[in-house]
Amino acid sequence: MKKILVLNGPNLNLLGVREPEIYGRQTYAALLEQIDAWAKELGLAVECYQSNHEGDLVDRIQAAYGVFDGIVINPAAYTHTSVAILDALKAVGLPAAEVHLSDVNAREKFRHISYAGRACAAHFIGLGFDGYREALAWHAARSDG
Ligand code: DQA
């Protein structure tokens, strides 16, 4: 069974409370439940981790090397700033999918740049929670391991 690490960046723990007109009213706990259900359907073993700290996310990406078969990552605000997360993804070389709940390309200009996205082979942007399902399905369908 493929093992997939799902990483979420800062403020995603506040889903449901945080700018609901952009991110919806469903909570982070609800997202985790959905991810679990999708993982079962797709036959994946999934571990989820959220952090508000850039270095924590880098540590988790590094620790995934040799343990996980792929990564789903929504780096949140660090998407647009973090070369460290980009470098960590490149360093471990695991197949990675980028997810954003909102359509970052239709928002402020500073959200149009994605550093982490440069190390991701698939991108699911502006699909809300379904983006995570699509990203997991992409991993499930991958034939490279
Ligand atoms: C986000 C988009 C980012 O620009 C923002 O900083 C977030 C969430 C999204 O999922 O739409 O925190 O990654």
UniProtKB/TrEMBL annotation:
Substrate binds at residues 74, 80, 87, 101-102, 111. It catalyses: 3-dehydroquinate = 3-dehydroshikimate + H2O. The active site is at residues 23, 100. PROSITE patterns: DEHYDROQUINASE_II. Pathway: Metabolic intermediate biosynthesis; chorismate biosynthesis; chorismate from D-erythrose 4-phosphate and phosphoenolpyruvate: step 3/7. SUPFAM superfamilies: Type II 3-dehydroquinate dehydratase. It is an enzyme of class 4 (lyase). The keyword Lyase applies. It holds the Pfam family DHquinase_II. GO terms for molecular function: 3-dehydroquinate dehydratase activity. The record marks 18 as: Transition state stabilizer. GO terms for biological process: amino acid biosynthetic process; aromatic amino acid family biosynthetic process; chorismate biosynthetic process; quinate catabolic process. Keywords: Amino-acid biosynthesis, Aromatic amino acid biosynthesis, Lyase. Its EC number is 4.2.1.10. The keyword Lyase applies. Belongs to the type-II 3-dehydroquinase family. Homododecamer. HAMAP family: AroQ. PANTHER family: CATABOLIC 3-DEHYDROQUINASE. Catalyzes a trans-dehydration via an enolate intermediate. This is 3-dehydroquinate dehydratase. It comes from Candidatus Fimenecus excrementigallinarum. The lineage of its organism: Bacteria, Bacillati, Bacillota, Clostridia, Candidatus Fimenecus. The gene is aroQ.
